[in-house]
Amino acid sequence: MNIRFGSWWIEIYQRAIQIIRGPHPECPTCAGHGGIEVGGEYVLDHQWSPDIELCDCWDPSPILRIPLWFRRTERVPF
Ligand SMILES: [Zn+2]
């Protein structure tokens, strides 16, 4: 489940919540798409498959991850 507030994404998983800052909506480089087409190639059926490079205005790795539960530490069996 994903919730979006402007350029912020909140991803809700069964075990954690992740907060990701998305692309800047008014970025002059990518216009809020988060990626820039840097080339590409024609693949099957002459379809254009673009190579997309991430824009500098965002980072797709989560900046905050909140675990919803902690795994119990296993005891060493003796
Ligand atoms: Zn951008």
3D structure, described in words:
The protein has 78 residues and is an all-beta fold. The protein has one domain. The chain has no helices and six strands. Strand 1 (2-5) and strand 2 form a beta hairpin. The protein is elongated. The N and C termini lie far apart (42 Å). It binds zinc ion. Zinc ion binds at residues 23-24, 27, 29-30, 55, 57.
Largest sheet: 4 strands, antiparallel
The residue fraction in helices comes out at under 10%
Read across the widest sheet, the strand sequence of neighbours is: 1-2-3-6
**Residue windows where pLDDT falls under 50 for at least 5 positions:** none
- Gross geometry: elongated
Q: What letter string, H or E per element, gives the SSE order? A: EEEEEE
The kinds of small molecule bound in this structure are: zinc ion
Number of distinct helices: 0
Please state roughly what percent of the residues sit in beta strands, choosing from under 5%, 5-15%, 15-25%, 25-35%, 35-45% or over 45%: over 45%
How many strands appear in the DSSP assignment?
6
Which structural class is indicated by helix and strand composition?
mainly beta
| Oligomeric state of the chains in view | single chain
